[in-house]
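cron nightly-structures :: item 1 of 1
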Amino acid sequence: MVSDLVPIGKESLTLEQYRQLEDVPPELEWLANITNPKTRRAYKTDVAEFSAFTGLHEPRQLRTVTRAHVIAWRKTMESRGLEPSSIRRKLSALSSLFDYLCERNAVLGNPVDGVKRPAANGNEGSTPALGDAQARRLLDAPPPDTLKGVRDRAILATLLYHGIRREELCLLRLRDMQSRQGVMHFRIKGKGDKVRFVPVHPMAQRLIEEYLPMAKHGGALDSPLFRPLKNNRTGTLEKHLEPGSVYRNIWLGHANVSTTRLYDRRKSKPEDSPTFHVKY
């Protein structure tokens, strides 16, 4: 196989490379086609675990899997005491693989279909909820008369009012605050490069507008919305915050993407968004 389907670094394939790629099984095509490296690593581990459980050694042998094999694997994971969320993810990885094999006509059906999965924990997510009073104290904690305090208040308001993840917050740029139908929205790029628009809460907008002139962004639309206050290594402040710094220095963002989905109302009117019903 040619470098596990990674870019070869030449303008064209050699005849030998072309023939090798012809022989790549769809099971490996599926894995190579997953663009997110974290998801790819997790799915690779999950499928490898299933293959070890069933005693399969070659990718093409997965085409012999039946629903009974998948059910037996699920029961084994349950007996090991795995978290329901972990079992669901592993079954989702296997289902994704067989969906791809169905598309390639390598199998007639997806053996994961119809296999009962552990119930999700609803819309509650795994992140502990904050009460209104706690959220208000958190918003008021940073000092209002320093650049760091003003920035941190804007960051906390963006997290609390909109339910976005730390990584999503750190990737926000100035151009990602956009007016849609007369209402300011965040353009947020989430997992899998999926884009959604979330109405900006007036309090968060006010705090951001207080922060930007103090930070002297200069108005460059591609500039990160929230920047570090110092950079001891290079001195450059035109960079995105690191999610870890938000965790260490400000506040822990949502760890479960299902929490974000609570606030995702793309088919609703902006005024119907939970953004405008939060009253910290």
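cron nightly-structures :: done
The longest strand covers residues 183-189.
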